[in-house]
Amino acid sequence: MILTFSIFPSLKVSDTVVEPFNATLSVHHLVENADECMVFDNEALHNICFRTLKLTSPSSDRRRGHYLTASAMFRGKMSTKEMDEQMINVQNKNSSYFVEWIPHNVKSTLCDSPPTGLKMASTFIRNSTSIQEMFCRVSEQFIAMFKRKAFLHWYTGEGMDEMEFIEAKNNMNDLNAWSWVVNKVMDVERNASQHSVAISGNRGDDSRQK
């Protein structure tokens, strides 16, 4: 199994102009060869650093996407019952953000030994469609450069072909499209559920009036 820790670029924290090319080409190889990717958005990391400097909110908003699967890892003195109750509470409060067609999609583990210097810690990893925003940002930067063939000669001079760039872009677009479909399906289901609740409420009002 191949597991990667991949940091995606941001123009806010880098002056490397070809990063959109590099990121898109990297995604192509990750799709083809990696089994699991831990993705870090450098722009979100940059904004989180500003949050510690009294910025009111981070840029990463869990409400912008839907959870396919998630894993919570706890370390420290904590009962398994308390851990399970906390995870059930999280899922119940945020049920609209979890896809319904994947049952038991949140796993949790507990280690009695806390990290050095801490009494307790937890790590939450999610497979979420919110990654679509980052892919869209990189894709827009890629397209803007590729249309002008800006800096493309650096790659073709090393033996690469333009078709490799097009194939890599298409791979990223496929990932984007899949996340978009999941979001749309979840939005339709949520709207249908809210409409059903509204109709039931109206019927209750009518019956009381009679």
Short description:
One of its GO terms (molecular function) is GTP binding. By secondary structure, the protein is an alpha/beta fold.
Report the principal-axis shape: globular
Number of DSSP helical runs: 6
Please write the string of helix (H) and strand (E) elements.
EHEHEHEEHHH
Low-confidence stretches: none
What order do the strands of the largest sheet run in, or round the barrel if closed?
4-3-5
Rg for CA atoms: 22 Å
Percent helix? 40-55%
Number of distinct beta strands: 5
Overall pLDDT score: 85
Q: For the terminal residues, how far apart are their CA atoms?
A: 65 Å
| Computed structural class | alpha/beta
State which percent range the strand residues make up.
15-25%
Describe it.
InterPro entries: Tubulin (IPR000217), Tubulin/FtsZ_2-layer-sand-dom (IPR018316), Tubulin_FtsZ_GTPase (IPR003008). It comes from Populus tomentosa (Chinese white poplar). Residues 11-140 form the Tubulin/FtsZ 2-layer sandwich domain. Belongs to the tubulin family. This protein has 210 residues and is an alpha/beta fold. 51% of the residues lie in helices and 18% in strands. It contains six helices and five strands; from the N terminus they run βαβαβαββααα. It has a three-stranded mixed sheet with strand order 4-3-5, with helices on one face.
